[in-house]
Design brief:
25% of the residues lie in helices and 10% in strands. The chain is of the alpha+beta class. The protein has a domain of 179 residues: Transferase(Phosphotransferase) domain 1 (Transferase(Phosphotransferase), domain 1), CATH 1.10.510.10. The protein is globular and about 55 Å long. It starts with 18 loop residues before the first strand and ends in a 15-residue tail after the last strand.
Length: 330
């Protein structure tokens, strides 16, 4: 069994001084993720000189505290295993199906699925993180964003996209879990985009046959044929042969035995995350067109990127005309 994490403690804390800042668990384009532990209780908070009828914020910085998930990045577990057997891939893919089913029911499109944005909790179940590119979309949107290897063809063509892009990324993730690499790869993003538009996926002989059938139905550029986008919606995926007799209700109740259970020594063990340099850096406010909606607050700091496998990006012009690893708004 995994280790319990009492994330509910965070509800009793509303000041940065109420946390012990621990190890940096990751960095991204716009800030760091810190492991923090609640220390002081509500009685200590009441002793502070604050007005009882005004919500309280830190005087200089805006913080966002989320649940601590200590099982490590799914990316790391996949790379250590190289590839997963079909049963393991099925278990984790089912999490993503349920996640997207829930988000899409609320008209939210995630748009940035990849192993780097999935975490394992202490029991071995998946948690999705990083909602920076998620958007409420009732029909379609035109923002060009994502990770090159995972981008759907309709995004590249800049004709508008919707929930179907998430089901495309599920197909990419399923392929990567079973093969070890995504189906479209190249050092030059332009070559990746061309491969995606060509739409040819090569399956190794050892690729699970039922998974191959589902992967093909997810990785079709024709939205009128892509699973998840048809009349039956997510049920086409759930009822596919790859998920035949899969216990969806048991997964939702977390009563299944995960194929990977992180080895942790305590609820605060962060050994499954990479080490990042702990540095104090001056906060630099982002640039705004017009009035700063958070005047008086620093929203974070642009930190040097630790080399990772893939970076997400957002641009406003077709990516086929952009070269290099850095994508800037036009």
């Amino acid at each position: 069994m995994g280790l319990p994490v009492r994330s509910a403690q965070l509800l009793h804390c509303n000041d940065i001084s109420d946390f012990d800042v621990g190890k940096t668990l990751g960095t991204g384009s716009f800030g760091r993720v810190e492991h923090v532990k609640a220390e002081k209780e509500i009685l200590t908070l009441l002793s502070k000189d604050r007005h009882p009828f005004i919500v309280n914020l830190d005087p200089t910085t805006l913080y966002m505290v989320i649940e601590l998930v200590i099982g490590g990045e799914f990316f790391t577990h996949l790379r250590n295993a190289v590839r997963f057997p079909a049963d393991t891939a099925r278990f984790f893919a089912a999490h993503v199906v349920l996640i997207f089913e829930h988000l899409h029911a609320k008209d939210v499109v995630y748009r940035d699925l990849k192993p780097e944005n999935l975490l394992l909790d202490s029991d071995g179940f998946l948690k999705i993180t990083d909602f920076g590119f998620a958007k409420k979309v009732s029909f379609r949107t035109y923002t060009l964003c994502g990770t090159p290897e995972y981008i759907a063809p309709e995004v590249l063509l800049n004709k508008g996209h919707g929930k179907g892009v998430d089901w495309w990324t599920l197909g990419i993730l399923l392929y990567e879990m079973l093969h070890g690499d995504p189906p479209f790869m190249d050092e030059d993003p332009l070559c990746i985009y061309q491969q995606i538009l060509n739409g040819k996926v090569r399956f190794p002989r050892a690729y699970d046959k039922t998974a191959k059938s589902l992967t093909k139905k997810l990785l079709t550029s024709d939205l009128t044929r892509r699973f998840g986008c048809l009349k039956m919606g997510v049920f086409d995926i759930k009822m596919s042969k790859f998920f035949a007799n899969f216990p969806w209700d048991q997964l939702m109740r977390r009563t299944l035995d995960p194929p990977i259970v992180p080895e942790l020594s305590s609820p605060n063990d962060t050994s499954l995350f990479e080490d990042y340099p702990e540095e104090e850096e001056d906060a630099t406010p982002p640039e705004y067109e017009g009035a700063d909606p958070f005047e008086g607050f620093s929203l974070g700091v642009e930190l040097p990127r630790v080399p990772r496998a893939r970076q997400s990006w957002r641009i406003r012009s077709p990516p086929l005309f952009v070269r290099g690893d850095t994508f800037l708004a036009s």
